[in-house]
Amino acid sequence: MFENIVKDGENTILSNGSFEVKITPKIYGGYILTKTVKDSPLEILEIRDIRLPLSEKEILKEARTLLKLSYDSADYTHYSIQTV
């Protein structure tokens, strides 16, 4: 699926058709990755706290991995994009 990267101040948001991952840098190093349902920021699927001082390339790789992650026990049918 197509991936979109948007800068929002200090945050970076990666999104595909159904989900988005927000990369938030921490004050003293590290990052917080938050995976949510697209256009519904309160429907949080997963949060990762990364305490390592990763490069921008490495943190984007981790965010892409989280964005592509599929949960076997979850029902995604009501999250898919519907075309009219």
Could you tell me the mean pLDDT? 85
**Helical percentage:** 10-25%
Largest sheet features = 5 strands, antiparallel
Number of helices: 1
Task: Give the uncertain stretches in residue-range form.
Answer: none
The helix/strand series, from N terminus to C terminus, equals EEEEEH
Query: How do the strands of the widest beta sheet line up side by side?
Result: 1-2-3-4-5
Beta content: 35-45%
Q: Gyration radius, to the nearest Å? A: 13 Å
Structure, briefly:
By secondary structure, the chain is α+β, with helices and mostly antiparallel strands. Helix content is 15%, strand content 42%. The protein has one helix at 56-68, and strands at 4-8, 11-15, 19-25, 31-37, 40-50.
Architecture overview:
With 84 residues, this protein is an alpha+beta fold. Helices cover 15% and strands 42% of the residues. Strands 1-2-3-4-5 form a five-stranded antiparallel β-sheet, covered by helices on one side. Strand 1 and strand 2 (11-15) form a beta hairpin. The two termini are 19 Å apart.
